[in-house]
User: What shape does this take?
Amino acid sequence: MAKGPPIKYNIHFNPDNVDILAEPGDNLMETAIAAGVHINASCGGAGVCGTCKVFINKGEVESTRTKWVTDREYNKGIRQACQCRISSDLVVDILPESRMEKAVLSREKKGIATEATIPLVTGWRFNPPVKKYFIGLPKPTLEDNTGDLTRLLRGLKQQYRLDSISVDFELLPKLAQALRDGDWQVTVTTLLDSTSGIKIINVEPGDTRAKHYSLAFDIGTTAVRGQLLDLNRGKLLAQSIDYNKQISYGEDVISRIVQSQKAGGLKKLQRAVVTTINGMIKEMLGEAKAEVGDISYMVIAANSVMVHLLLGLDPKYLRLSPYVPTLNATPLAKANHLGIELGRHVYLYALPLVASYVGGDIVAGILGTGIYQRKAVSLYIDIGTNGEMVIGNSDWMVTASCSAGPTFEGGGIKHGMIAAPGAIEGSEINPLDLEPEVTTINDEEPKGICGSGLINTVAALLKAGIITQNGRFNTTLSTKRLRKGDDGYEYVLAWASETQIGKDIVITAVDIDNLIRSKAAMYAGCQTLVKSVGATCSDMERVVIAGTFGCNIDIENAITIGLLPDLPRNRFIFIGNGSLLGARLTSFSEDLLRDGQRIAGMMTNIELSENVDFMDNYMAALFLPHTHAEVFPSVRIGKGRGD
Amino acid sequence: MAKGPPIKYNIHFNPDNVDILAEPGDNLMETAIAAGVHINASCGGAGVCGTCKVFINKGEVESTRTKWVTDREYNKGIRQACQCRISSDLVVDILPESRMEKAVLSREKKGIATEATIPLVTGWRFNPPVKKYFIGLPKPTLEDNTGDLTRLLRGLKQQYRLDSISVDFELLPKLAQALRDGDWQVTVTTLLDSTSGIKIINVEPGDTRAKHYSLAFDIGTTAVRGQLLDLNRGKLLAQSIDYNKQISYGEDVISRIVQSQKAGGLKKLQRAVVTTINGMIKEMLGEAKAEVGDISYMVIAANSVMVHLLLGLDPKYLRLSPYVPTLNATPLAKANHLGIELGRHVYLYALPLVASYVGGDIVAGILGTGIYQRKAVSLYIDIGTNGEMVIGNSDWMVTASCSAGPTFEGGGIKHGMIAAPGAIEGSEINPLDLEPEVTTINDEEPKGICGSGLINTVAALLKAGIITQNGRFNTTLSTKRLRKGDDGYEYVLAWASETQIGKDIVITAVDIDNLIRSKAAMYAGCQTLVKSVGATCSDMERVVIAGTFGCNIDIENAITIGLLPDLPRNRFIFIGNGSLLGARLTSFSEDLLRDGQRIAGMMTNIELSENVDFMDNYMAALFLPHTHAEVFPSVRIGKGRGD
Assistant: This one.
């Protein structure tokens, strides 16, 4: 019997308004990814996080129900996308809380203060590792008919004193034509490779020196930030920001590593981030009205997992003790061999890694802040799912990282969300009536709470005496905002009628516990690190707070809950995206490129995960602000004046 | 109206017994190439050489008739394959003279006296440019969890004093697993790159040092010769020889260049030679019972056109004045990027070129013979379609090449053929009755005359007085062997009844003219070159004759016709395939690799094609043996005693 053509169902996604054909039994989450439709999925599709809820508007799915879907939701037709198998044509509405919105990133984009960043690193020359040389060669004659390449090398030696340079094999097929098309006047692009010296990577007819651009990218677990730069004048031509498309496979590095171990997983993750990068490059080229052929170089800074995934390296051993990356310094890679849509001659340089959880993004940050150039000791903190910290000066540098959990990105929190429109970011609580006043991103009706909002809310609860210093709710207070919910006590920040999601937005005792654990890990990390060199936090001349998240936190509130050490406020510096800053500077200067390698080499990594001191410090920090109140002298805690 | 599926015809080739589908109007020659069926085609399908005759046994073709198909042949159904367009199902018989037979190569294969080659080059150390190091590394701990690559580099520095080494990007994805699979005991393969230093190209678990092989290839215009070598002991493990599959696109380098300029032509030619190489590698691995993963390195020596085509470089400018190659020294290329089926880590090194018509094969030959090491002056001659010659010693070296035409390969000769079974290679003529006695390769019935056969035949005709010193037939002689044919006078070497082709095999006045022009070019080339350095031929301490063809010629006959200078016979050395010898030695020794580069650098190339001296010398050499009899004192010419 002849088999008929396979049945295909049409799946329509709202509000994206995208259609895709799927086969019976296809997973709905994977179908959404294939259609380019994003659904949040912290756990990477394992069904355990409940962030991928969708409403099956029309049609049928077979789905496995987990505890994350309530009876009421289930009866309404709400399902977890990752748990659905397609069995008919479908219309699928993605719920507001399951959607990621690019608007917040655009907002951030406008806010990137690239040129305004304090020039912390000093004394470097503008001298890009990739250079263009214009050269006129004598035309060959019967008396001088040496090979094209020999002629070119001879010319570069005579005119520019370039000697012992190697040649990229891939440029050879077009060399003869380029020389003749340019009538023996060509532009040669060279690249400095720290181990093997100078290499010719491109030869173009005529004088193309005016168009000589580089790309700097910070590849974060959540967001990717890129800049298109002019290598002649060190100017920013365009910038772009986008979510890392790997998010569909899980929100933190651990779920990415887990995903990478599945069949074809590494390839998929690699392709996802490359797709993100390619889209951003196109966008920036459009904005700057530049051609892809004008780009000569690309520098990236990223955490160790992101570097491994982008380069196609198995990240497995990064998460297994003793936490070993495949490499620290990364050999130059051809960008287009990785799938990045750039000229065949463009190499990608990744800033070196220090350890499994101290990546090139931290090296880039240290580079950009110039901490490694000063005698005075600084503390560098990058707050995120993975918290990284560095302490040191021009002579030494010690680093550590700790898993703070996804709390700061809104993960593991009942109404947590990333810092997108509708996220509660500010909270004040009137100590008299215990009523909150919240502000949201873009002033939309509330949809959830983002990381900085959580810090501000907990600080407000503490100052109003609604929670005690051990993080428990003061249940003796009389306010309808404080009530018993599914997860124990909770405080209502917004009533259902005031929200976008039609549900009360609350902060629960569990949420507060999670935040306390996260901030305790960060603080204990800093403390352990500082103590490991025989110092105390107050010895720190500067505390540099890096990361976009770091930029949005309120310093007083962060100290109030004991996330940051209680130091004179003028010692804190916010540098924004230190990783992107370092990547950009690396593309501008051979000196800084070498400095970056030196920084990675001088950093000693301390593993906190199996460190006894860290565990003690962590236990002591599970208090607001801290068990030892004397280390937070400026923090004054309210006494429940509302009761 | 819907279009039907395209019509396909079945084409069957005999005696190969191969079928292929073709579309109406397809060219029969190209269809044969697509089917992997070889038909000789000296001119590359231009219709001008007449070597691709086939018999259309069944079916219809549309064909353009040229002067190469006689009336009788045409009426029998014989056509030129390159001139046929398919218009029905076909059965095509390829005529014996249009077929290439592998048997002759097998015969040659047995004869390659690799190990017996006189060790002419001296004083070099066995020290391959590709090395394997076995290393045990300390396992990572929490206190020492630096990256895998850093650990490896540290170990190589400590244990082997290897410093500043670079790493091939492509090995990184498997590095972590290799180290753990080997329980931190691994074998590292390194490669010396003359410009950028030492590079790690492979890391394998455990100790694989015992299997460490290289390939040496001589890539000739007609034949490709390869050897599989043991880099631990410098031993030959297997060898192989095959026709260069590019032959289907034309027999000489000029037709290959012409072919490369057609759409997709360069790609096709590149693939053809790579297919040849891949087949030979498989054969050698089978013979040596080795695995492809055991091969660490590949060295090739080839003429400039073959190097360009293999590397995918446009050879266009090689044949246009002032004859400029794309390169002289060749950067290392990844073998598998070229399509060669070897491990991803294997690099291909090509011996450097001197000029458009003086290639790496000549550099290899000079290297293998050690001419560059001696004070005394030697002359090196490689006789072929393109004749190359070098004169020099340890201080200087001058080289030239001349187009001798395809005569020495049997081209341009009425019954010419390559040195395959049935080719007449030896001729003696009885001066009394003027009857010939011919010997053929493999003692088969004659099918044609090969290059060395032609030299011997012309020498015999001259000694018997059948031709005069200006190459004209002595028409006063009375023998039925000498008669008037289509191309003027001709001498019958074999009657139709004695041959495989059912036709009289003759040597014509035109054939003799062609040989005289070819030998005159070779001799004049040597003479011009020798004179250019103020010497004469008799100053040559040694005359090294290279090339497989060179090995088969009779030295007395070659001097008799004036192809080689009249010097004491003990000055002549036959080295066989100097190109393969040089490639092999290069894979054995960094010293010799550098020497090869030095040789290419010290050679001065003289362009003969536009040299006035050369033209004078050439005119004077258009005589048997030479216009100036005094330079050939030992040659005694018969006086037509048969009449």
Chain B touches chain A through 54 residues (CB under 8 Å). The two ends of chain B are 80 Å apart (CA to CA). The mean pLDDT of chain B is 89. The CA atoms of residues 491 and 507 of chain B lie 5 Å apart.
